[in-house]
Amino acid sequence: MQAEAPAIRPCDAAELIRRAAALIFDVDGTLAETEELHRQAFNHAFARHGLDWQWDRAVYKDLLRVTGGKERIRAHHERLRIAAPLSDVDIAELHRIKTAHYAELVETGCCPLRPGVTDLLAAAKARGQRLAIATTTSHGNIDALLSRALGAGWAADFAAIVAGDDVRHKKPAPDVYVETLARLKLNASDCVAIEDSTNGLIAAARANIPVLITRSMFFRDDNFSQARVVLDDLSGLGVRRQNKKTEKQPHAQ
């Protein structure tokens, strides 16, 4: 039986990041605390569609175990045990309304990137590391968030952008990470996945990619024992660490 690799301490997170040839980011909860906006957008869609559903934070936290917006709507409906199921057309329309309202909310600027994200992206780019996205959300949602946060040309900085609809199975299946590795043409051990949830952790781990967890609002209490590093956020990971020799030497006069 192969022994597990020792967990890297949080203080070594920056070194784990620097050694990687590519950083692969989840989006919702990882790059920004978007899940609350998604929850509000779902409730807006339900009201527009004439449904008396109202997902509070507790209900939504539970539903987040189901990956994918359309899948979440279907799962909730099934739990209600209503005889007549929602059709695929109804679910698609609900999701369309929800997605449009989510983009409107993001455009107000109420959902900035989480602490440390912008600095980490800039530092990785300066080091020549490749950036990628592996997420269950849609391309439209990714663009709505990152166009607002990083500018219209944000996608040029990412070597691979793989969304939920690009693969057969969503997280916790490893499909999105397997596809990302194929597009990057890199081995799993050359990358670091940055996630915020157990489903994301499992997906990346099944693809054999080391995982750094940045705890988020809805998944803060998840079991992250399989992660290499667990942090509250990404602050400080984009800052170059001086070596001890440099720190001790005074500047020349």
Structural class of the helices, strands and pairings? Answer: alpha/beta
Mean pLDDT: 90
Strand count, sense and barrel status of the largest sheet are: 6 strands, parallel
Taking Cα atoms only, what radius of gyration do you get, to the nearest Å? 20 Å
- Fraction of residues in helix: 40-55%
**Number of continuous helical runs:** 10
Distance between the termini: 59 Å
Give me the count of strands: 6
Characterize the overall form: globular
Tell me the β content: 5-15%
- List the uncertain runs: 1-7, 241-253
Lateral arrangement of strands in the main beta sheet: 3-2-1-4-5-6
Oligomer: single chain
Structure description:
- This protein has about 250 residues and is α/β, with parallel strands linked by helices.
- The protein is about 40% helix and about 10% strand.
- The chain is built from ten helices and six strands.
- Helix 2 crosses helix 5, helix 4 (about 70-80) crosses helix 5 (about 90-105) and helix 5 (about 90-105) packs parallel to helix 7 (about 140-150).
- The radius of gyration is 20 Å and the shape is globular.
Q: Which descriptors apply to this entry?
A:
42% helix; disordered N terminus; 253 residues; alpha/beta; disordered C terminus; globular; 6-stranded parallel sheet
